[in-house]
Amino acid sequence: MDNLKKISDFIIREAQKNGADESDVLIVNSTKASVKVRLGNIEELKQANPKSLGIRIFKNKKKALTYTSDFREESLKKLIRQTVEMAQITGEDKLCGLPESKYLGKATSPLTLFDPKIETIPTSEKIRLATEMEKIGMKQSPLITNSDGASWSDSRSKIALANSLGFYGEQEYSNCALVLSLVAEKDGVKQTDYWYTNHLFFDKLDSIESVAKTAAERTLRKLGARKPKTQTVPVVFDPNAGQDFLSILESTVVGTAIYRRNSFLIDKLNQEIAVKDFTLIDDGLLPDGLGSRLFDDEGLPSRKNVVIENGVLKKYLCDCYSAKKLGVEPTGSASRGVGSAPAPSTSNFYLQNGSIPPEEIIASVKEGLYLTSVHWVGVNYITGDYSRGAEGIWIENGKLTYPVQEFTVAGNMLDMMKNITMIGNDLKFRDSVNAPTFKIKELVISGS
Amino acid sequence: MSRFVVSGRFSDKEVIEEENVKRREFIKAGSIITAGVLTMPWWMDAARAEKLAEGSIQNMEELFSVTKADMKKLIATAMSHGAEFADLFFEYRISAALRMEEDIIKDVSRGIVMGLGVRAVQGDQVGYAYTDELNFDKMNAAALAASYIAGTTAGIKVINVSSAPKKDLYSLKELSVDADLNTKLGLIQRSNVAAKKYSPKITKAYIGINDEMKQIMYMNSDGRYFTDIQPMIIMRASTVAEDGTNRQSAGAAYGGRVGLEYFSIAENSPEAIAEEAAQIAVTNLQAKPAPAGPQVVVLGPGESGVLLHEAVGHGLEADFNRKSLSNYSNQIGQKVASEFCTIVDAGIYPNLRGSINVDDEGNVPTESVLIENGILNGYMHDSISAKVMKCAPTGNGRRQAYSYPPIPRMTNTYMRAGKYTPDEIIGSVQRGVYAKRFGGGQVDITKGDFTFGVYEAYLIENGKITTPLKDVTLIGNGPDVMRKVQMVGNDPTISKGGWMCGKDGQSVPVSVGIPTVKVSEITVGGTQS
Question: What ipTM does this complex have?
């Protein structure tokens, strides 16, 4: 079976035949290709066309989930029978089930998420782009001595979501990306960094020249890094570090974390938790947004949710289950893979642009840190305690001076949000989580 | 972006849910070498396979409708543009999960993933394609797609198939994916009760079991053929402790390539898992902010092995070294750690997460001594790096699934025992930090800088472990820290935790281990100066 509508109809029907009260099915069918070039040679060519589907069954307020890449009719029949049987093992949970019918639907937005051009690009052109990009990057300085490779990747995914209440949605997405990683060396110390461009549309990718130059600049600026002294200073988060900061909010502002009491944001609804300029948005309908979609993974229309408005926490992002647990409305934020149940998640999550040029923010710091990269360990989601391994550039008298590494930046998320003193005007939508440059009054640097 | 490799409990959102972790399996000094004889192996012979066939285990050739002759044809297609080597990796995997939350079994799931990955290799160039379609034409199309890595045409090579040597490191009574769900349910309920019983401060408990059975069939153009059935199970407990407005959460998880009988051993019991999670959460309610800046650090046994994994292990994976991307490149024979450090990677011990009968390209894992008494001895290889660097493969070629080509990966990485008792080590520290349980880590391969999240840590004052510390982060440079190792304990321990290691977008299960170790200085990322 290959027609997504036909398969999903079959599954919903079989589930009903086997005694399910409700059911839904998510099918994902994609095409992927990638090319990796290193030092001018092709290192890897990859190609595939994977498919999989996930079935959820509800019976007597109990539920089960199964998934498979085997779409043969007999295999599916057997799996559906198994799923209904498995549901009996779970406990009764009055809140589980499909969304109420009134919530179901698709956003009426002229979003286009698929670029037919990508499929027409021959492999030779993908190889050329990656090869050229690496060549330009390596040429930027004699200090650039090695490459960890340049890669092209693209994918096309078709998803279908159907449920026994009659919802059916199909959506096609495309994506393409170029990434370059370089190595520079000075005084026997190697440094590495990378840059990338990622978009739904081929024509909207950054040029290979700009990716190559940025990758080279980011690598070169790390040469001669020192370990800073332990001290308390103002910290300017660049958009990269800001993205990490938002990703912590991404994990803690969702309904699941709240009802599980596993978030520093519990019991904070409608309270002022950040400075006035801090407005945090999750927009599932952002044009060209890498996380945009017309309906969420439970079949609710996508929308723009203002999560924090002028410093006040306005809502938690919820799927239908966590919304019921918290006694609030769902926000169209359900997200799932074929092998997992829906859970709330962000789509295009960003901190609203401020008004100050980033150069002015840096210029305002007498002595402090320009934070360019953080490591992923070191956040306690339940207390908001933050202690990230970090890299950056030291600021002296309002100017970027020497690079710094091998230290941590520590504070607490709730204190940090109340101590953001400047927000930049440089918001760009490069990823699905984005922030402009911003400054935090002070944080503890732990170094030598 | 491959320079950053991470491991631990939380390598992505899915992993937070699925692969919470844990620790500790005592292997006495010296016995780590002979651990292979502790468990009686059984061979996955035809009779055994037949007996198990009523369950999840499949006849792979029937399942994929291919014969060995078809497989040879696919290899010929993959080599049709002149590749010097090709291989086929068929995988059939069943994954299951059962989870309790708020005293209700809320989630039960089961999944089937199956497909074929075809690789064509020319020098160090790789063509890779995979398919989940179960017919020869689609498989042949994948083989053809992979073949284009090589640019010429070549004659067809005749393959004489021979089976790879067989052993069994998993030795279990029954595959857990075939066990009665009620048995798993019973284990989960016991754990849930124990978490609540531990302290009235425990307000939430989530208990889950995740397990899988991965069946693989492999053939390459050198004629190597093997099949294997790899089990994996992890049981985890997460708890939230509250005391007024003060809240903490913590998790614990035990498991390995074992069956459910593993949990009937007292120290692996569902109660033990819950109690460990509850103990950390309750302890951390009293935790004080950690000091900031360089400190003497004593690494507790077992989990601290994640430090070796990050600070040393990844830098010694041969792909980074043949490309001169590692801070350990071209340093064989040189002193890269203090003389007390002997570090080994060995996928050869029964039932550990990183143990495999055969790696994902047909090589049998070995015990690789990476660093011996501080001297760099060798790297971990897959077939390509071994060939390019003219070494023997070490059995470290692993892949997450059929959809990925194999790359050099760690298996079980640990430090061998030293001569001090843990008490002597802790007693030697006037003031420092005792790091007991880790959340995970990250390393920049090229410069060697790492970060670790420690989620159970204590202050050491006058040779004694005292106050619990909040959320300690350790940061440093791998070779630098390894040179500062001053004392190594006589208590080598392998962590029981469900460690997942991420590299190049591929996650594989690993084990880590270490004795108690004293490091003269690591930067602690606290808030108290």
Answer: 0.91
